[in-house]
Amino acid sequence: MYTVFVVGTAGSGKSTLTSSFSDWLKEQEQSTLLVNLDPAAHSLPYEPDVDVRDYVDYERIMVSRRLGPNAALIASIREVARYVEELREDVNSFNPDFVIVDTPGQLELFAFRREGLILTENIGVEGRKTMLFILDPIFCTNVKNFVASTFLAASIYLSFGLPMIQVLNKIDAVPREHVERIQGWSESMDSLLVDLEDKLKGGLMIFSREVAQAVYDIVSSIPIIPVSSITMEGFPELHAALTRIVSEGELELR
Ligand SMILES: Nc1nc2c(ncn2[C@@H]2O[C@H](COP(=O)(O)OP(=O)(O)O)[C@@H](O)[C@H]2O)c(=O)[nH]1
Ligand SMILES: [Mg+2]
To answer: For 2-53+87-246, CATH number?
Structure first.
């Protein structure tokens, strides 16, 4: 049993990827278990096997405690963490090849709160977990946004300490050269530096070189895999990257 936590900014495609990557895995004769950790999810593109909404009612918390939407989200995620034992038992009562965990729409609710850590520590088997950080290519085509997103990935990596793969989702929705440019930034520091300097319009040479170096150090150690959750393009490569991490983890355990 291997557990994959899907994180990313709102709308990046976490729930869609959870759904379609599971469909793809099933076509490869891999069994999957889908977990929804979003207490405020209205409708999901998949039928979760384990669902926090069975334990926590976001709407009821909002009404009964007279909270606004954001305060109710925070109260809900606290409540979710109280049910961590139940959630763990629910997951452990199955024994699938892959557990795919869809996380709340608002990234900061999960990634930068204690509850997120409690959930990732308690769901799944130690040493057999990975985090997928979903990138939106429409946002990342701008090199400054790519830099911001890379630092976000690094800070999430620091928070959780789990092996991470960056998944560049929605590649069906952008021109191929945009995807290649983003990949280029993770493969060549020069191309990153050239595009950064162009955006920063000179004058900030030292800053841009240092930023480029820091970003390059991060992205060259966290792989970026382009996929489409609509066409399933890139899923074989994503699966291969996950398999590599599984086998490296097993080597470490010996
Ligand atoms: N074109 C395209 N749209 C996508 C893809 N993945 C997700 N979407 C769309 O992006 C929007 C947000 O997706 P959702 O999975 O709800 O994002 P979440 O908030 O991260 O869970 C939806 O309209 C999806 O249909 C993709 O690979 N390609
Ligand atoms: Mg979602």
So the answer is: 3.40.50.300
